[in-house]
Specification:
It is a single chain. With 246 residues, this protein is α+β, with helices and mostly antiparallel strands. It has one domain (29-238): Ribonuclease T2-like (Ribonuclease Rh, Chain A). The chain is built from nine helices and eight strands. It has helices at residues 2-26, 39-46, 83-89, 100-113, 122-136, 138-144, 156-167, 207-212, 214-222, and strands at 31-37, 56-62, 153-154, 172-176, 185-195, 200-201, 229-230, 237-238. The longest helix is centred in the first third of the chain and has 25 residues, at 2-26. Keywords: Disulfide bond, Endonuclease, Endoplasmic reticulum, Glycoprotein, Hydrolase, Lyase, Lysosome, Nuclease, Secreted, Signal.
């Protein structure tokens, strides 16, 4: 009897874990994360060269779900009319003439965003991402507030304040952190968040946000890439100018 009760307890516990993990990772998304990356920092980290001297799109990510429909394949012919803007605003920094980055983003994030009617096709998803990218104009906002690529360093408060003053909501600002003993961090990625109606909301550093990004963290780790993490409030921020051959 004791053995049966113990076994039942284990089964109940495992069932609870499955339900809980399913709820955390797969229930319907509540906000979208419009993610920009700074090409020079990305290429410093990934050992590539870039000709882009403005913030480019990394992706439009629902805060829940990853690769929600593996049978829904990317089809470049469905976005032919927006390809010029895609190539300019959402380039593959490894290979700007490739469509593989868009295929990856559609499979991993677009198929999950598509639960919303406004995003339920490839054309709608990519068009909306471009629309939001141009509407919020992160590059222009930073320049207007005198946050520009430079050899000088900035504080996290200055960068965050520039965006907060313009948008009225908090972004999530991520950096490439220095090794042990490093004196500054390098600005790498900025997330702007919107709700299901595409209205701006703060990108909160909450427990739910951490859980919803587990898969992104794991993919970085499995590929041997350290990736970006939330900037340290106490370290100066370096916003590197464009350099290198291209």
């Amino acid at each position: 009897m004791r053995y049966r009760m113990k076994s039942l307890g284990v089964l109940l516990f495992l069932g609870f874990c499955l339900v809980t993990s399913s709820h955390v990772l797969f229930h319907e998304w509540t906000k979208l994360i419009l993610t920009h990356h700074w090409p020079q920092t990305f290429c410093t980290m990934e050992h590539c060269h870039t000709r882009f001297n403005y913030w480019t799109l990394h992706g439009l990510w629902p805060d829940r779900g990853v690769a929600c429909n593996s049978s829904w394949h990317f089809n470049e012919s469905l976005i032919q009319d927006i390809l010029p803007d895609m190539e300019k605003s959402w380039p593959d920094l490894f290979n700007p003439t490739s469509t593989s980055f868009w295929k990856y983003e559609w499979h991993k994030h677009g198929t999950c965003a598509a639960t919303a009617e406004a995003l339920n096709s490839q054309h709608k998803y990519f068009s909306k991402a471009l629309e939001l990218y141009h509407k919020f104009n992160l590059d222009g906002v930073l320049k207007q507030n005198h946050i520009v690529p430079s050899e000088q360093h900035y504080t996290l408060d200055a960068v965050e304040g520039a965006i907060l003053n313009s948008y009225g909501v908090k972004p999530k600002i991520q950096c490439l952190h220095p090794g042990k003993g490093g004196e500054f961090q390098t600005l790498g990625q900025i997330e702007i968040c919107v709700d299901r109606e595409f209205e701006l909301v703060s990108c909160e550093k909450a427990l739910d946000d951490i859980w919803s990004r587990v898969n992104d963290i794991l993919s970085y780790a499995l590929n041997g890439v350290t990736g970006f993490s939330v900037c340290d409030e106490d370290l100066p921020i370096y916003y590197p100018p464009l350099t290198g051959k291209f």
